[in-house]
Write a structure and sequence with these properties.
The complex is a heterodimer of chains A (about 120) and B (about 425). Chain A is α+β, with helices and mostly antiparallel strands and about 120 residues long. In chain A, strands 2-5 form a two-stranded antiparallel sheet. In chain A, strands 3-4 form a two-stranded antiparallel sheet. The radius of gyration of chain A is 17 Å and the shape is elongated. Chain B is an alpha/beta fold. Chain B has two domains: about 250 residues, Rossmann fold; about 130 residues, Rossmann fold, CATH 3.40.50.920. Helices cover about 35% and strands about 20% of the residues of chain B. Chain B starts with 14 loop residues before the first strand and ends in a 19-residue tail after the last strand. Classes of the chains: A alpha+beta (about 120), B alpha/beta (about 425). Chains A and B meet through strand 1 of A and strand 9 and helix 8 of B. Strand 1 of chain A pairs antiparallel with strand 9 of chain B, so a sheet runs across the interface.
Chain lengths: ~120, ~425
C-alpha cells in the first residue's frame, strides 16, 4: 500500500509541513471568476496588492503593477472592488474556455479554461 | 542536590508552606515562568489563573497573560502560542473542559506540549461544583497525557514533571495534571516547594522543534490532508504517547533526586502479598489505604492500587500488581452510562491477557459523583464483599440512596 508514499515513521511530527508549500499549490484551479487588468487605467496605487489575500498582484520596479498571477488567483474579486480607477474587471472563467494557454490577463493563467473546456 | 557551598544560599533552600492544590499549582507556574498563559476562570480551578494573574500584575513572571472570552478561546490561544514555540500553561474544570473538547485533539496532533491544571469537577447537568472525574474522563482519548494527583504536594511536583515530560523530544504531548476539586484544590496542607533556582534548572527552557515563529524556516501546521496521509500522521502522533513511560521514568528519577519524592505511574500500597485490592484514583486513595491498614491489623491481607497515570495507561504494571489476587474492586469516580466505567474497563482489559495464569475477578463500583464523600465504612463494605466472593457483573453504586440496595444488572446481592 506504500507505493512510494511515506510510512508513518518517515513523516514530520505535529502535522508539520515544511514552509512555502503554497507556492506549488495551484489555487488558480479553484477560480470561477477572472480579474482582467487594464494597464492603461492602472495608476499602481497598490490597493489591490495590499488587499489580495493570495499575493497574486505582480509588481515590478518601483512597485508598478504588472499583472495578476493566475497560478494563485482564486478569483475572489477583491482587487476589482478596491480599484479606484476601474482598471480591474471581473469576467466569468467560462469566457476563457477556448483559450489554449490563456496568454491574456496574467503571466500564468493556470488550467482553468482548459478544464472548463473539458466539462 | 549538588552544591559547592557548604551552606545552601537562602534562595536554594526548599521551603514548607501550608497551602492548597490550586495555590501549589499556581506557585509551580510562577517558578516555571511560562511564556504564555491563556485562561478563563471556572470553579474550582479559578484560583489558579487568579493567583497567576497576581504574579503577572506584580511583575514576578515574564508571562504574556491572555484573557479571553471563553474556554474554547483559551485553549485555542494556548495551541497557537505553543506551536509558535512558547512554553504554555493553563487551567480549567468541568464544563470549561467540555467547551475545550474540540481543541484538545488538535493540540495533541500538533504535538503542542501544553501543561494543563485540570481541577476535577462534575459535568452538569444538574449543575454542581463538586468533584468527580466526569470532566477529564471524556478526554481520555484526546491524545493528552493524564496524571491524577492524590494531594497538593503531588500537584506541585507533577506540574514540574509535566513540563519536562510534555516537551521531551520523544514525547511532545500535552499533559493534564488532575486534582480533585475542593478536596485537593481548596483544602490546606503542608507542601514543600523547591527553590526558584532549582525549578529553573530542572525545567530548563523549551527547545521547540518546528516553531511557527521561526520565520527563516517556515512551516505549516494542520494543513488539509486526504485519506492517503491522515492515517500515517495519526500513527506518528501515537508514537509520542507510546514513548511516555520510558521518558517519564528518567524524569521522575531526576526530580526524586532533588525532592526525595518518587512518583510511579501506579502507587501500590501493601499490594505485594495482598489477597484483596481496591483500585482507585486521586484523593480518595487515602481512605482506602487507611481501611487496608485496619483490615491488616485484623489479619486480612488488603491493599490499594492508586492509578496515578491514566494516559498512557500502565496496563503491564496493573497486570503484574493484580495478577494472582483473590479479588479486585475498581472504584470509579465517573460513570459510562451503557458501558463499563473508565477505570474498571482499563483494569479488566489489562488483566485479560494474564487470564491464562488464573482468573482475577474484578468488581466495578461507582462512587463520589457530584462530590459525595467516600467513607471508611463504604470501603470496608467493598473489601468485605470481595472476601465473601460477592461479585456483581454490573456496576454497583457506593453511598447511593437506593430502594433496591445499589447493584445493577448483576448477580450480587446489591447491598453495598
Amino acid at each position: 500500500m506504500s507505493g512510494g508514499a511515506p510510512c508513518w515513521q518517515d513523516i514530520l511530527p505535529g502535522t508539520v509541513t515544511l514552509g512555502e508549500s503554497s507556492r506549488v499549490v495551484e489555487t488558480g484551479l479553484w477560480r470561477s471568476l477572472r480579474p482582467i487588468l487594464d494597464v492603461e487605467k492602472c495608476v499602481s496605487c497598490l490597493k489591490c496588492w495590499v488587499q489580495c489575500p493570495d499575493m497574486s498582484i505582480q509588481t515590478g520596479e518601483g512597485g508598478a503593477v504588472q499583472g495578476i498571477d493566475m497560478f494563485f488567483c482564486k478569483g475572489c474579486g477583491i482587487c476589482a472592488a478596491v480599484c479606484p480607477t476601474g482598471a480591474i474587471s471581473i469576467r466569468p472563467e467560462s469566457d476563457f474556455q477556448d483559450e489554449a494557454d490563456a496568454s491574456s490577463g496574467g503571466a500564468s493563467p493556470g488550467k482553468v479554461g482548459e478544464l472548463v473546456g473539458q466539462l | 542536590m549538588a552544591s559547592s557551598n557548604a551552606v545552601l544560599s537562602e534562595n536554594k533552600r526548599p521551603r514548607g508552606e501550608m497551602t492548597s492544590g490550586n495555590m501549589a499549582f499556581a506557585e509551580a507556574m510562577r517558578q516555571i515562568n511560562p511564556d504564555v498563559v491563556a485562561a478563563y476562570p471556572i470553579t474550582p480551578s479559578t484560583e489558579i489563573p487568579m493567583k497567576f494573574a497576581e504574579f503577572v500584575a506584580d511583575g514576578l513572571v515574564d508571562t504574556e497573560y491572555i484573557t479571553v472570552e471563553s474556554e474554547h478561546s483559551a485553549i485555542t490561544a494556548c495551541v497557537g502560542a505553543s506551536v509558535s514555540g512558547a512554553r504554555v500553561m493553563t487551567a480549567s474544570s468541568a464544563n470549561g473542559v467540555g467547551l475545550m473538547h474540540e481543541i484538545f485533539p488538535i493540540a495533541a496532533a500538533f504535538r503542542a506540549p501544553i501543561v494543563f491544571g485540570l481541577v476535577n469537577r462534575t459535568l452538569g447537568a444538574p449543575i454542581n461544583i463538586n468533584c468527580d472525574h466526569s470532566d477529564s474522563m471524556p478526554e481520555r482519548d484526546s491524545g493528552w497525557i493524564q496524571i491524577y494527583c492524590e494531594d497538593a504536594q503531588e500537584v506541585y511536583d507533577s506540574a514540574l514533571l509535566a513540563i519536562r515530560l510534555a516537551e521531551h523530544r520523544d514525547v511532545l504531548t500535552p499533559v493534564f495534571v488532575c486534582q480533585d476539586g475542593f478536596i485537593t484544590s481548596h483544602c490546606y496542607e503542608a507542601v514543600e516547594f523547591l527553590s526558584d533556582e532549582d525549578v529553573r534548572e530542572f525545567v530548563g527552557t523549551r527547545e521547540a522543534r518546528y516553531p511557527l515563529l521561526d520565520v527563516d524556516n517556515p512551516v505549516s501546521y494542520g494543513s488539509f490532508v486526504t485519506s492517503e496521509y491522515y492515517f500515517e500522521i495519526k500513527r506518528n502522533q501515537i508514537e509520542g504517547m507510546n514513548n511516555v513511560m520510558r521518558v517519564y521514568g528518567d524524569i521522575s528519577n531526576e526530580l526524586a533526586s532533588l525532592t526525595g519524592r518518587e512518583y510511579q505511574p501506579l502507587d501500590c500500597y501493601r499490594t505485594d502479598d495482598a489477597d484483596y485490592v481496591i483500585v482507585i484514583m486521586s484523593s480518595a486513595a487515602g481512605v482506602v489505604k487507611d481501611v487496608a491498614d485496619e483490615l491488616r491489623a485484623g489479619g486480612v491481607k488488603a491493599g490499594c492500587v492508586r492509578v496515578r497515570m491514566f494516559r498512557p495507561f500502565p496496563a503491564k504494571e496493573i497486570s503484574s500488581a493484580l495478577s494472582g489476587k483473590k479479588g479486585v474492586a475498581v472504584l470509579d469516580r465517573s460513570a459510562s452510562p451503557g458501558g463499563v466505567s473508565p477505570l474498571a474497563a482499563e483494569v479488566r482489559s489489562a488483566l485479560y491477557m494474564s487470564c491464562r495464569y488464573g482468573f482475577v475477578p474484578v468488581s466495578e463500583f461507582i462512587y463520589g459523583l457530584g462530590g459525595r464523600d467516600l467513607f471508611p465504612s463504604d470501603v470496608e463494605r467493598v473489601f468485605k464483599g470481595l472476601m465473601a466472593e460477592d461479585y456483581s457483573s454490573g456496576a454497583s453504586y457506593i453511598g447511593l440512596r437506593d430502594k433496591n440496595g445499589g447493584a445493577e444488572g448483576g448477580d450480587g446481592d446489591g447491598s453495598r
